[in-house]
Amino acid sequence: MEKDTRSVGIVETKFFKIYEQIELESGITFGPITVAYETYGKLNSAKDNAILLLHALTGDAHAAGYHSEEDKKPGWWDDMVGPGKAFDTNKYFVIASNMLGGCSGTTGPCSINPDTGKPYGLSFPVITIGDTVKVQKRLVEHLGVKKLIAAGGSMGGMQALEWAIEHPDMVSACIVIASTGRLTAQGIAFNAVGRNAILSDPYFNNGNYYLEPKQPEQGLAIARMVGHITYLCEDAMHKKFGRRFQEKDKPNFDFNIDFEVESYLEHQGRTFVGRFDANSYLYITKAVDYFDAAGKYGSLEKAFSRTNAKFLIMSFTSDWLFPTEQSKELVKALTKSGKDVSFCEIESPCGHDAFLLEFDTQTKIIKSFLAKERGLHEQPL
Fold it and tell me: I need a labelling partner for 155 at 20 to 30 A (CA). Which of 178, 250, 311, 374 fits?
């Protein structure tokens, strides 16, 4: 497979250890915590050229580059991160970390509880977006960062908003893509169906399945199938699959896979269970449900009045999970709060997944926004 000549190349996932206990929003104190992260580019002398990339629901710290010469699959936002790309590593020190509660190196329910020597399972504390941002802040302070730009799509956009609201002295700009200030009842409902599929799996074993011969694979696969439906849109699914039968021109007249779209969803579910943990899916979707940018401040306007950041809000025409109306709600609140905000709705047939697919258009918009923001305080590397 030919690799991108503008790739950041071979990268290494590193680990940062927080030894002290951290107080979570639930009131529980928790620790120690290991954070998996990757960095690309160099931090400048003023330590203010950092961009913190915040991943979506099932993402990880591997945002760009390859882990080895034989690695055929680059990081999840590789088309956006690298020399000359949207997040230009010739200019910026780009950081990506796996969130608290994840299953790709950062402490989560599949991690070993030092008090018991066994995986945490459901003894892991319920977390929020605010909790994972608190952990990320420890990481960026460890890396010496003084100022940063917070950027992310979907759940990553929620984290970026949390960063801008809760750490206004550190965040100079905030890029929110295909995201929202809080989930609708419909969004919470889809997450609830996914969680119930996992909880109902006969091999879930109250979350203590790690040492068992059977895992809750079917429940996790169904959760992924439900989630994947929300990432696409009706038009995209129609164009991709229509009502075509799978490898034949007539129905089976049974309950096996008949249609191409069924086969596609089954494949998505099957491949997902090989890389993600069912308990992490429970915890992270719950954190998304709890997120409310207005939250403790009473309104979005009051929350955004705390920020000092410039904002770029981007949405996609076919995204019905986090539709443009929800992005406009953020823009309206930022405008009322007197903040500098740019907004762009991108035409795309790709649904919610567009932020992972529409690289060219996003790159132009983001590079323009960053050029304007960077020009105000450019420092040498």
Answer: 374
Task: Choose the catalytic residue: 55, 318, 352, 353.
Answer: 352
Q: Which of 282, 274, 290 is nearest to 109 (CA)?
A: 282
- Distance, in Å, from the CA atom of 4 to the CA atom of 28, rounded to the nearest integer, reads 45
- Which amino acid is located at 257 in the chain? I
Q: How far is CA 69 from CA 7, 62, 89, 265, in A?
A: 12, 15, 20, 31
Domain boundaries, the chain: 14-182+292-374, 188-284
Candidate list 60, 78, 277, 319, residue with the active-site label: 319
User: Is the pTM higher than 0.90?
Assistant: yes
Q: 258 near 246, Cβ under 8 Å? A: yes
What residue ranges in the chain does DSSP mark as E strands?
14-18, 22-23, 29-30, 33-40, 50-54, 81-82, 87-88, 93-97, 112-113, 118-119, 148-153, 171-177, 310-316, 341-346
Q: How far apart are CA 362 and CA 282, in angstroms?
A: 31
| 3-state secondary structure (DSSP) of residue 149 | strand
Structure tokens at 179: 């995201």
CATH class belonging to 188-284: mainly alpha
14-182+292-374 and 188-284, same CATH topology = no
Phi and psi for 39 in degrees, rounded to 5? -130, 150
pLDDT tens profile 102-154: 999 999 999 999 999 999 999 999 999 999 999 999 999 999 999 999 999 99
Contact between residue 254 and residue 248 where contact means Cβ atoms under 8 Å apart: no
Question: Which of the four pLDDT bands, split at 50, 70 and 90, describes residue 378?
Answer: very low
Choose the catalytic residue: 7, 154, 172, 280.
154
CB-CB contact of 356 with 316 (8 Å)? no
| 258 catalytically annotated | no
pLDDT of residue 151: 98
Residue 154 bears catalytic tag: yes
Residue 377 designated active-site: no
> Tens digit of pLDDT for each residue in 32-66?
999 999 999 999 999 999 999 999 999 999 999 99
Nearby residues of 121 by Cβ (< 8 Å), 6 or more positions away = 109, 206, 207, 208, 209, 210, 279
The CATH number fitting domain 14-182+292-374, selected from 3.40.50.1820, 3.40.190.10, 3.10.20.740, 1.10.10.350: 3.40.50.1820
